[in-house]
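Q: My collaborator sent me two sequences in one message, no labels, and asked for predicted structures for both. Can we handle them in order? The first one she listed is below.
A: Yes, handling them in the order given. First sequence, followed by its structure tokens:
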Amino acid sequence: MDPSVIDLSRLQFALTALYHFLFVPLTLGLSFMLVIMEAVYVMTGREIWRVTTRFWGKIFGINFVLGVATGLTMEFQFGTNWSYFSHYVGDIFGAPLAIEGLMAFFLEATFVGLMFFGWDRLSKLGHLLVTFMVALGTNLSALWILIANGWMQNPAGASFNPETMRMEVTDFGAVLFNPIAQAKFVHAVSAGYVCAAVLVLGVSSFWLLRGRFVDVAKRSMTVAAAFGLAGSLSVVVLGDESGYVLTDNQKMKLAAIEAAWHTAPAPAGLTLIGIPDINARETHYKVEIPWVLGLIATRSLDGEVTGISELVLKAQERITSGVIAYDAVQTLKANPTDTAARAKFELHKRDLGYALLLKRHVDDPRKASPALIATTAWDTVPNVSFTFWSFRFMAGCGFAMIALFGLAFAFCSLRWHDRKRWFLHLAVWAIPVPWIAIELGWMLAEFGRQPWAIEGVLPTFLATSSLTPAAVITTIIGFTALYGTLAVIEIRLILRTIAHGPYETPTQPDAGEPISTRTPVPAPALAQQEA
């Protein structure tokens, strides 16, 4: 396989996935914020909450449409650019994706239509139930996607069948309740809630700075402050749980994130900052907090966090064992009834994927020398500098969100919504921060898994289709042009919707007193005020 095809295929999938994930978090969070706002409307009967819910529903709708459109092209790439991946693990990986498709196109799409067109056709409680079903369907869709992705990180409940030469499901329950998948789901969903809350908080602050739509802005800001504070705290707590799960299932990723080159005495210290050096295999100028990493990763004072060097030695042992499994598979291909080969395969089958790492260097892993095996073991180390720094920037953004929403919650509780103009400016500028953190987190998850497409099972360089560099470059250009156009369209639609405001007609007021006490402002007068 041409190495450039592998890199280009990875680049294309990364670009489409990162672009798609701009929409997913907002959809996840905004759907439940709509439920909260509409629930207040149902309980109080106050028209202002109906206006507020319908406005944010428009933002949700614009985002939802583009999220679905970009998600389709991303999934198609498993067949176009990653055909061997699909052949090798499709029996396991395809099931969660198929269920997610059913969720998205039947549950979500049906109830989204009812949510938008049922305001005057359903009862208040009936429409609230529809909105809740949209939120539930949206979050369940994310669950199935993350079950599939979690299985890539920790391939539980499956094994290699030498008769079909493919991975097959042995325990679907283990696939569903994969600890990596569960940890990723709650962490990713909480991050989506923060994204939605930041957008609502920022837009509300923008309106308050200009003295427009004050009644809707204050109510939206209050909901965003409480929802965002809960979400940001959850992100940090659940992120800690994700670190604990890595200790048992992805030790190399955890070691790379912490640039832990060697196993330290328990409990290990947490490196705040430093400069990882892959050549010297040490971290220069590091600032360390004693005990913290050991407590986070092992929940104990005596549990060890294994270092990169020790994990490489373990990988070397697994490659050697995998070569034995590979030899047994070749024997079984020629003679499926060979009981000795079958017994040898069963003993070493969990390490078969490690032997496949050698195919980057030799056609037949059985021909690899001990020196080549030792060198290949270092291929299991991901990009330490990137994982180290991306995690720290992501964590910094998370703590910044806690501070932002803590202030917002305090100001809203004191009814100081528009008294602290510096905070309103800060809230507007903070809108991109959670998206930056989420994209870094997504890249951290994928970079940290390398060199594996499926952790310990299938190397990335073996998973691609037989394509030419020109074909992949052409599709990258096409996707970039298409997605760039869609991005411009979405941003313009959202900005136009925000500028228009939450009211349907220009005769609606945008001052701060309750709607029921105001008199309509004539359109010419309103235009003059705006000018």
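Q: And the one she listed second?
A: Here it is, processed independently of the first:
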Amino acid sequence: MRTSLEGSCPEPAQRKLCRSPFLSIKFFVCCHGVLQLCQLLVSAYLKSSISTIERRYGLSSQTSGLLASFNEVGNTLLIVFVSYLGSRLHRPRAIGAGALLVSLAGFLMALPHFLAGPYQYDRSSPSSFSNATDLCQPEVPGAWGNLSGAACAPQAARQNREVLLVMFLAQALLGLGGVPIQPFGISYIDDFASRRNSPLYLGILFSVTVLGPGVAFLLGSATLRLYVDLDKVPAGQVRLSSQDPRWVGAWWLGFLVAASLVALAALPYFFFPREMPREELCGKEEEEERKREEDVLSQLRMGAEHLQGLSLAQFLKRFPRVLLRTLRAPLFLLVVLAQVSLSAMVAGLATFMGKFLERQFSVTASLANVVIGAVNIPGAMVGIVLGGAILRRFRLSLRQCSALCVLGTFLCLLLAFPLLFLGCPTQEVAGVTDSRRPGARAVPAGCSLPCGCQEEAFNPICGSNQVEFLSPCSAGCKVAHIDLGTNLVLNYTNCSCISEGGLQGTARPGTCGTGCSHLFLPFVVLSCLAGILASTSHTPSFMLILRSIQPQDKSFAVGIQFMLLRVLAWMPAPVLYGSAIDSCCLLWQRRCARRAACRYYDNDLFRHRYLGLQFLFELGTFLCFLAAHLLLRRREEAPRDPRPGAGNAEKEKLAESSGGGTEPKV
């Protein structure tokens, strides 16, 4: 449908309209890039603060993994109808409405902080010493008040349930709101941009899509350095440092920032028209540019014309038939399965890599987010750009695209395998790991029994013998040396459970750590290089998808592809990784007689199961790409029938399965 504005804009009034920013596709691209960046801040920020939220609300990794994947539920419920509704809605306004829903979801994610009271970290304080912390006092039996026990009040238990309910509701709304943003934005740009500029605009949007999670992790790094209750507790009363295992950063602050930015980015979309003049119609493009070959993404519109006349019932009736026909294409199925395996690996990387780095190398949540946001995610972006550049420079055929995917994933496997052995041992924790490690340092039996320590007390200290204790009381420490200026404990002395040459030893507050920080940098470098190599298959695999199906089914097939990625990878993978991580726990925090967050993991088991899953998914990706490559080579090397016309029939059959000629250039 052409509007009255189309043409070369000869009239002054029309020239004025053409100069309006809301009739410029360039301005739309700018607005959409900003919106996608802000949307990804909301969706990816949760992953940057997942370990902090676990600690704050006592969640297991399985529960937090389910929370991280729950936004895919709302997204999957509506994604099937995008192809049907896209041509019938006012797309800019639909994008704006979806963005406002995303903004609401971001504010809801921060709401639990304001519903709950101040953060009460696990500690015990003697009633007669306001400045001492969890000391051994045999002469004052029953003087302890365990603050963690307050969490078992009925009101607190109900509050925890409300927190989870609000977060899951927010994630569902986030998925629903995100449905129209990218598909409608891409189709709108492709409809009204010039054919020469359309690939450039879409490339900008895809770059922002990769860059957004990196910015989210950097935002998480900044906010998690601040104490969670900065709005409730004066800074001078905070007695924890960011290195303390009980530290909880201001996880909610990033959601407020991201949600506010999304709300502002949504406003311009309510002023864009339903249709605008094509970019070249204002004299900006040469006539010969219109005759150039359309970009591959523009071909997604090929099936849209015959969808215009379909009713919803006809659309739903047609969908299963097209789905079956698409899934019967072996090349399409193999490439999609490869992408599913790769996406499952990325889901585990994005959700729990920060927690893995924290536990494995004893780094803070802030530093872990910096590494992911500034190293791993930009590395993945470099890999995507590199794969696209190779594709464009050498104009690879389908078989060469599959070969590039095989090579990239194979090299990724070679670099990922050493990561299984590049890690830290489990730190020695008295009463937790000594039964599992025959070579552990001996702790005198019953040395803390006279102290009457609380079982749930958690105020870890590191003894001078490099053994970690759950609290100063459990180490039998009787004296705490306090800095009067900061009111922080400097060290503990007279610790009956810490023996040094027959004398009672000392301890310092905080964890002992894993003691292998020198392995942190090699691990980061190897994992970044593996990510770059795996990402080189992104663009070639997308081209294999588009060329492996019939042209009239492209719009359906891309929707099916993303639906399968969500259902088979992004939804179950975080839960699977969370369950694997939970199985490595050595000591669980208990709240109201239920299992809460994990305090200590078996680091070797954690590394082998977490990175083992990553390696298995990478292996699955490699095998699927290898099978696709062998399938294309077999088709290319199939013997030709010498009968007249038989070769043409074979070419037509191959063209039908690949969406083009026998071996089209991409």
